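Incident log entry.

Two folding requests arrived from the same account within the same minute. Monitoring flagged them as a possible duplicate submission, but the sequences differ. Recording both here for audit purposes.

Request one:
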Amino acid sequence: MSYVKLKNLYEEYSLINDINGLLSWDMATYMPVKSRKQRVKQIKKLYDFKDNIFNEIKKNELFKKVDKSKLSKLDKLNFELMKDKFDYFNSISAEMIKKKAELSIECEGNWREAKEKSNFNLVKGSLKKLVNLIQEESEILSQIKNKKKYDCLLSKYDRSLESKNLFKIFYRIEKFIKKKLPLIEKKQMNKDYQLKDFLTENDQFELSKIFMMKLGFDFSKGRIDKSLHPFCGGSTDDIRITTRFNEEDSFSCFDALMHETGHALYEQGLPSKWAHQPLGYAGGMSLHESQSLFIEMQIVKSRHLSNFIYKTLVNKLNKNSKLWSSEEIYKIRNLVKKNYIRVDSDEVHYPLHIIHRFNIEYKIIEESENIENLPDLWNQEFLKIMNLEITDDSNGCLQDIHWYGGDFGYFPTYSIGAFIAAQLAAKIRKDISNYDTLLEDGNLKGIIKWLKSNIHSQGSIHKINPLLELTTGEALNLKYFENHITDRYINNLV
């Protein structure tokens, strides 16, 4: 049967992606600096294997031979998602795909040096070549799909997103945040919260592991390592989480690992029945980010869980109880203050960072903005939205890895994820009556079980709005995020 053959070939494709994920993790963690050229060859070879798979599909006309009338509803959807992937490889030449992979590795390597030295010029040349190729790719896809070039890139990360809707959403959120910020700042005015003790790198690591186990992370199928930029990679049964440490910020590692644990739990909770099939993947990066931000913002930075963090520090890490308090932990970790760095930003300012990046990458792709002017463009736009002047490239256009790895269209998923997370949290509070008490006690199993049942186990069956309608009773509604910000930072309720 042609459909069975397609499923088998797609499993091969998926396993190659798993290998690529582990090679990418190694490249960001332990790979020797001078091994990069060899790694390029290895990854290009993986693309040869992928190309062979899709050539076999094309040669045997497998998609044409499938009788969809004989497929179940889920198999039909799986088939359509497979075809979307095939159409991409059929539209973009194998040479272009391999060239993009090569340039991404080269550019990412140059970015690491440029970031360390805070000098955009060290990566400008390779980024320009990469962006030129991405623009060429998006133009091809735009003509085939009859969509905006930028929308074609968005759909690679989330098939639910379109730029016209994002402009509307971000306009509303930017307006809301700028209206609420004076009230929030007034609330925190003249309040200097400082910890009387600090957490060493080992303390942060141990605290993180305790909470990862509380959340249900399976360490027999995953591990933690250091990297320049925190991320979650690997494969479903081999999750690789990375973090960074900053002893000047006692909770930097903890918060980063809680975020990445949210990603990991999603991966570990995906439907095993559909493993290595399109339906077995996460339902897009917005939903993925919703799970990481649910853990990081809705749970771990809540007032109620701050009490359990305090108990853990005293009882498990032997911290002096007189030097710590749950209220200080809560207020320090939810301090609203302008920040140059996205990943270190509070959740009130965070959407502004995303809107800033969305506006820039839209201009680069849709308006062919000259990439050589990126630092100036970044600094001008950042001043407009954040009222902060950038003094060096490291705090500006070099702070994120995404563009230098070729990921244009990813950034919006962070904020859409935050909005989804707030909506899910409101629903869970209704479904689990003792929600706050569970957080106080560090009993997170019931909450995670709800997420696994309603989100993780669904894989890619639903787009964002159908899934939210199924789980919360309505499509994406920004009021839940707005209510969350008001309740936490103005009314002091959560």
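Request two (distinct sequence, not a duplicate):
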Amino acid sequence: MVSELNNLQRAGDFFIESAVITTSQGIKLNILPQIMHLEINENIQLNSVSGNVLLSDTIDIASIGPIFGQEYMSLRIHTAGVQESALSVDFTEELFHITSLTVRAPTGQPNVQALLLEFTTHELVKNQRVKLNRSFEGTCSDIVENILKNELKTKKKLFIEPSDGIKKYVFPNIDPFTAINMIKREAVTVSDGAPTFMFYEDLRGYHFRSLSSMYERTISQEYNPSVVGSKAGTKPIDSFNDMRSILGMHITGNGDTLLGTFAGEYGSKLTVYDTYCRRFKNYTYNYLDSFKTEQHISTEDKVTSGSGKDDFPLISATPVENNSRISDFPAKTFLRSTANKVTPGEVENTNDDPGISIQHTNDGRYTFNSTRPETWLQRRQSQIVQLENGISAKIEVHGNVMVQCGSIIKFDLPLASWAEIKGNEDRIDKFFRGRFLVKAIRHDFSVDSNKHEMVLDLIKDSLPSSLQKLDKAIETQPVEPGRVQRQFGSRARIA
């Protein structure tokens, strides 16, 4: 990233090159002089970028436009002193769609009112008007690309990871995003069969990719939390160091075993009914047993650590009841149907699953893969829940559009405090260290201070070392099983 920042004078500096609103009546309004604050949000769990802009309205924009939520906004922002497109927020060709005017209030200054405009990308708005009433054939990735290009007609860049298996979908009057979100649940990667595809938009375009591919990314930015709120330097070399500083931090989660158990993160049972063969088959998922076969966020960069399989689960293998671990209880249950084409001899073989769908044919040939929920449903459920139930934090840092949602960043949190600690690796928190996935980003552009800051929503789903375990469960046992002590007033008796 150094080469892209050669001209950077101060960490977080930015320059709004253009900001124009086009109303439904064709009126173009230059709002650049009126912008006080701009916020843009991106999230791997959301389909579109959104945000808001706060205006100091001195020319009565709301009435001249007027502004009713049918306007488009052209916006281009780049890092001060840097012209590379990689460090730009450019929505001058694919415009934002203003959806509402949420605040219109006096500021206390004469003839000045504050306006807060909410906006999102125009594909989300168009998505509400488009309905799919047809079938699609191909890999999940091919179908998603087809929908984005030919149904939504987006011109934005598409980052689509190849998926495995030929599918056929019939969509009865549903919008494109709903269809894509249905498809992503069944998509598996070509490389390792990972069922963790996400569909989201960032500042670069639309992504249809797996969590596994995100976890394998190299580090986009390394942050140093030992010094909080460091002042921006005046030289480029200082800017590089300032970009690594953390302005604030809030730890948001350290795992929740109740949520993990309820949501099927640790254990689940799936019953699949084959309507063609007329048989049931049960499948059990165990988080602790499956951990090493799944892709996780490695503590160390895979460039140096190799396989990246040296990390460990977020829960202990200590028994919670008798000799059973927390993952040995399939607390969540699923029931799904399928229809696999098999030969008569294979019907009796419960271990044989050819994975060919009987539900769809192509010119009389069974060429499409069955849904096979046993290959993706439970594993996906567990890994998606881990996005909400892992080790998580929110950090405030200097703005850097090279960091995107879905990126990997690195930082090591000192154990004791935010005080500067040098040359003492033993005081690094073993949980909050290493690589983290950027799940979401809030970009804050403050015009008054000319500062671009970001709030990064971080998540981690593995540990660098195994948690210690006991051989026996820690349980509260009654002194005399079967006997209940009851208290009545000042006297007690044994029933």
